[in-house]
Design a protein that fits this description.
About 45% of the residues lie in helices and about 10% in strands. By secondary structure, the chain is an alpha/beta fold. The protein has one domain: Glycoside hydrolase/deacetylase (TIM Barrel, Alpha-Beta Barrel). The protein is globular, with a radius of gyration of 18 Å. The two termini are about 25 Å apart.
């Protein structure tokens, strides 16, 4: 695949590599907010996304009100994966919307969202999340997806259309329909994701070459595995590396079975070890805010 046009617009060469260091799940619990604040102040990360329906969202929003430089997006939330701690939609809990399970909370899996959620209800819910984020003082730099819940044909159309309607750059990957099918998506979804990404790139939106991460279920050797994943970014590519940082707190341990990985993500970036690695690899860190001027005049 040809070099990413977004990098060329930023003045990079075909040999350069750039990476967004993105923090997910901000506001899910207190530990995510304090970890994000520490990492942002240390300049160890370049972007984050807030979970608007969650209990600690208000505190995340207050950070953005206090510091207008924070690169914060909306983490489109349609799932609630834990057992002891659940959250639900801002737009109501009616079963007929398909947004909730028997506990009147979001479904625990993205597969259930794809099967049950009505596209119109998804649009209303994500619209409400965007509106609340803005009303709370966040000027969203982007919108992405919690647990990939919108990466399903009809819902991805809703996601992209709503992002364009509300003037927020949507997350997209430079993959063809064939690529998506190879990853296991059904033909309809693969066609939609491939087509919409191509449309976005043609219009001038930044589209990422790769989504990089180490699964939260993989607790061992996260530093080495993260470095190996990042090192695989090829010349001329723009990557999106996801981490889920959190401070080690009793609340986090009670909520998340994968708390060790989340604490590990925080520790490996706050230590400066990853910054040294990225410098050695000659990979440039960029934020989604830096990419947004590329689409000036599109909205």
């Amino acid at each position: 695949m040809r070099s990413n046009p977004a990098l060329k617009k930023l003045g990079f060469s075909d040999k350069d590599r750039a990476l967004v260091i993105h923090t997910d799940d901000i506001g899910m619990c207190q530990a995510t907010v304090t970890a994000f604040k520490a990492l942002w102040q240390a300049k160890a990360i370049s972007s984050g996304a807030a979970m608007v329906p969650c209990s600690w969202f208000n505190t995340a929003a207050s950070l953005c009100r206090e510091d207008a430089t924070i690169d914060m997006g909306v983490h489109a939330t349609l799932t609630s994966e834990w057992s002891a701690y659940r959250w639900g939609p801002l737009t109501g809990e009616a079963f007929q919307s398909g947004l909730v399970d028997e506990e009147r909370r979001f479904h625990k899996t993205s597969g259930a969202v794809a099967r049950e959620a009505q596209p119109a209800a998804v649009k209303a819910e994500l619209s409400a999340q965007i509106s609340l984020a803005r009303a709370s003082g966040i000027a969203p730099t982007h919108i992405d997806t919690h647990m990939g819940s919108v990466m399903h044909g009809p819902l991805y159309d809703v996601f992209v259309d709503l992002a364009l309607e509300t003037g927020i750059p949507p997350f997209a990957l430079r993959l063809s329909a064939a690529d998506w099918e190879a990853f296991g998506l059904d033909t309809e979804s693969a066609d939609v994701l491939g087509r919409r990404a191509a449309e976005l790139e043609q219009t001038g939106f930044p589209v990422y070459d790769s989504l990089l991460n180490v699964r939260l279920s993989d607790e061992q050797d996260r530093v080495a595995k993260s470095q190996a994943v990042i090192a695989g970014l090829r010349p001329g590519q723009l990557g999106y590396f996801i981490l889920h940082p959190a401070h080690d707190t009793p609340e986090l341990r009670d909520l998340c079975p994968d708390w060790r990985s989340r604490v590990g993500d925080f520790e490996m970036f706050i230590s400066g070890e990853m910054a040294e690695f990225l410098q050695k690899e000659n990979i440039t860190i960029v934020g989604t805010r830096e990419l947004n001027p590329l689409i000036s005049g599109v909205f």
